[in-house]
Amino acid sequence: LTFAANKFAKNEYDFSLTRSQHDEIGDLEDVFADAATKITELLKTQTDLNVSLESTVLERTLELEKKNQELERLYVIDPLTGLFNRHRIDEVFPDEAKRAKRYQSTLGLIMFDIDHFKQINDQCGHLNGDKALIAISNTVKGQSRETDICGRWGGEEFVVICPNTDLAGLAKVAEKLREAIENTVIPDVGQVTASFGLSELGPNFDIERLVQNADEAMYAAKKQGRNRVVAMENDHG
């Protein structure tokens, strides 16, 4: 009984106690032994529950992290094309402009628009129009450099932000992309072309001017016959 009492005092219950007498002392020994067994079983159950709870919490945490990652992805990725969406591009511009200013490096912008896209939707259907957008987006991904930031600007317009790239470098990238798009055969649509406008960030690091210049250059490409690359010279803005 003294042995059992000491064990209980130390919160140790995994022990055996054999009845030594057939009297009240023996009855008390049985009580201690039974209590030790039940407490041991309860502690094991509690341990199993804790393990199960920890496993459930870990599983739920991983699920939550996965959902958060998916939400974050949806927040910045265009669901149709898989490119960055307009929201993400708007976030990237200031960061890249600051980096260009800090390191006194160049920053170029390519903006292009699919030619006659309304006709594609009208003649081939909007589902095939979506196919065209997806195919061109895949071409952009395949042709862009590792440092380029590609996004869907809206509708059938796309942008490629090119760090450390001047107008001459932009022209090479854009021409390569123009040719790749022209040579892409899209099922149920055929071949499509795109018109490109290029601009370079000026010494004032004015992002709005950068976008405006690229946009104007793109529309100049359309006026000049489409399926071509036009660069807007830096106007110090």
Topology diagram in text:
Elements: H1 2-9, H2 24-76, H3 86-103, E1 107-114, H4 117-124, H5 126-143, E2 149-154, E3 157-163, H6 167-182, E4 185-186, E5 190-191, E6 194-200, H7 207-223, E7 229-231
Parallel strand pairs: 6-7
Antiparallel strand pairs: 1-3, 1-6, 2-3, 4-5
Helix pairs in contact: 4-5, 5-6
Key terms for this structure?
single chain, 237 residues, alpha+beta, five-stranded mixed beta sheet, two-stranded antiparallel sheet, 7 helices, 15% strand
What can you see in these coordinates?
The chain is an alpha+beta fold and 237 residues long. The protein is built from seven helices and seven strands; from the N terminus they run αααβααββαβββαβ. The strands form two sheets. A five-stranded mixed beta sheet has the order 2-3-1-6-7, with helices on both faces. It has a two-stranded antiparallel ribbon with strand order 4-5. β2 and β3 form a beta hairpin. α4 packs across α5 and α5 packs across α6. It is elongated, with a radius of gyration of 35 Å. The termini are far apart. The model has no long low-confidence stretch (mean pLDDT 88).
Question: Ends: how far apart?
Answer: 93 Å
One letter per element, helices H and strands E, the order comes to HHHEHHEEHEEEHE
Assembly state: single chain
Strand count, sense and barrel status of the largest sheet are: 5 strands, mixed
- Estimated radius of gyration: 35 Å
Percent of residues in beta strands: 5-15%
Number of helices: 7
Helix content range:
55-70%
Strand order of the largest sheet: 2-3-1-6-7
pLDDT < 50 stretches: none
Instruction: Look at the structure and give the mean pLDDT.
Output: 88
- Overall 3D form: elongated
Alpha-beta content class: alpha+beta
Total strand segments: 7
